[in-house]
Write a structure and sequence with these properties.
There is one protein chain. About 15% of the residues have low confidence. The strands form three sheets. Strands 1, 2, 3, 8 and 9 form a five-stranded antiparallel β-sheet that branches. By secondary structure, this protein is of the alpha+beta class. The longest helix is centred in the N-terminal third of the chain and has 24 residues.
């Protein structure tokens, strides 16, 4: 009985060790074939997706680079704009989060017939990428992000906009 238990435990430990070491030796990531992640530069990174490239893995929100999109009437924080940075890739992008649920009405500028949420990143030289989400209802906590700009040594800023109750409201970070 003890021998059977010993053999079973030994086989389990062996199996888990083999699987664990295999996973460490051959990690499966979205970045495996991404040019930006493997060789960061202007040509490989500008316009790339931070999620699918793998660049978001080590990303952080740049210090003091979070601003809020405030409702012009109530002064409430309706959205949040962050400038994200990946040290590995040397890239920045904008991440915008809706802090309220809105929808049902027609658009007022961001989208022709639905409410919208927009994220845009702008590099110091003017290169920019923008993503706009247009849909009938935008739930609280919805997060969108722009494509990336390669900016390891130049500043970039993040811009966010939304149109929850009519006119477009927006804000942007400083250039970092």
């Amino acid at each position: 009985m003890n021998l059977r238990r010993y053999i079973t435990r030994t086989l389990i430990v062996f199996f888990l060790s083999a699987v664990g070491f295999s996973a460490l030796a051959n990690p499966i990531t979205a970045a495996a074939g991404d040019a930006c992640y493997n060789q960061p530069n202007n040509a490989n990174c500008n316009g790339d997706n931070p999620q699918t490239s793998g660049c978001s893995a080590d990303a952080y929100t740049v210090a003091n680079a979070t601003v809020y999109i405030k409702d012009d009437i109530s002064g409430a924080n309706d959205g949040k704009v962050e400038l994200r940075y990946s040290p590995h890739c040397g890239t920045n992008w904008s991440r915008v989060t809706s802090l309220l649920t809105y929808g049902g009405g027609g658009g007022s500028g961001l989208c022709p017939s639905t409410p919208g949420l927009r994220a845009k990143v702008v590099r110091q030289d003017g290169l920019n990428y923008m993503y706009t989400l247009c849909q009938a209802n935008i739930p609280n906590g919805t997060i969108i992000f722009s494509a990336m700009v390669y900016a390891p040594t130049v500043c970039a800023y993040a811009y966010g906009a939304m149109d929850p109750n009519g006119p477009i409201i927006s804000n942007q970070t400083r250039c970092f």
